[in-house]
């Protein structure tokens, strides 16, 4: 077809034959999209007890959900799984970002799987470390484990209050154990509060350290070192071997100055290389010896009982707080009181008393009705 604009002399825009555009609706899609079916608590429990990974994952999603109906189902599932839980070794693993947690967990995990165990890797990370590309418990960080059928990896429940995130992880432990996972790793970043939460849900607490520059105890709070049942110095390879061994000696000296641990177990310091897989067996030998020791002395049982009591109190505290802050008009009342405090019209203590009085009176009225 002749067109003046297609003339070779023409300097303006040319007309091209177009392509027919795709329909916006997929012609092969007929009917309504299928909604994912929801399961009864009994179906979840049955699936979990059979070791069905997809049922386990779905149940964990319910545990993590903040929707009330999901929580109701989750609590029932947990309750029914409880009698089947507890038969595992729970190990907390911490270290500052870059210490080599994911590299090491990959190797430690393969080591325990080779011994015939099933492993669940969970994480607690209430902060937003995630923006720095270090999503704890992220599958892509544990390449070998993520392809292994005997490993179940679950990243940290999404950011929230530490108490809430920790409770969800603890509940997830129950589900994993009921599903037959007899080794549980709980990963956390060794820089803050989360370690105390992890410590309260594991049997053994492993601290991954590096040979530092200068002060070997840098970056890790003394309190975290005191919680450790074992300290391992990673990256003991290549020309770092001497420095790692020196750091180990310094840690051993530092540990002498610490008060005895409640279990009377003497924390050990071991060098290894997560990347090259050197001396992983030595690390694991220490952990096995610890379990033999605490099972013999009865400390294992005692600590688990203490933890169970602690979690009941924690859950009560957490739920009471949530119920209080969610109660109608509390938010407004708190804002008013804050203004009064700032204007020096009322003290913090009488303001707190007023708000609590309001809450308890209203609560009584609602329950009387
Ligand atoms: P995370 O942030 O604690 O999980 O640390 P990563 O496991 O991601 O490791 C941080 C960096 O240290 C990565 O570049 C790893 O390859 C490296 N790394 C980890 N373990 C070792 C080791 O044993 N030796 C050496 N040389 N490098 C390691």
Describe the structure.
The chain is an alpha/beta fold and 369 residues long. 48% of the residues lie in helices and 10% in strands. It is built from 13 helices and 7 strands. The longest helix is centred in the C-terminal third of the chain and has 28 residues, at 299-326. The chain is extended. The protein binds guanosine-5'-diphosphate. Guanosine-5'-diphosphate is lined by residues 95, 97-103, 134, 234-235, 237, 273-275.
Characterize this entry briefly.
48% of the residues lie in helices and 10% in strands.
What's the topology here?
Layout: H1 41-49, H2 53-64, H3 68-81, E1 89-95, H4 101-114, E2 119-124, H5 143-146, E3 151-153, H6 162-178, E4 183-189, H7 194-199, E5 204-209, H8 222-227, E6 230-233, H9 241-256, E7 268-271, H10 280-297, H11 299-326, H12 330-342, H13 348-368
Parallel strand pairs: 1-4, 1-5, 2-3, 2-4, 5-6, 6-7
Bound molecules: guanosine-5'-diphosphate.
**Count, helices:** 13
Instruction: Tell me the radius of gyration.
Output: 28 Å
Please state the overall shape, judged from the principal axes of the Cα atoms. extended
Mean pLDDT: 87
Looking at this protein, list some descriptive labels:
single chain; 369 residues; alpha/beta; seven-stranded parallel beta sheet; 13 helices; 7 strands; 48% helix; 10% strand; extended; binds guanosine-5'-diphosphate
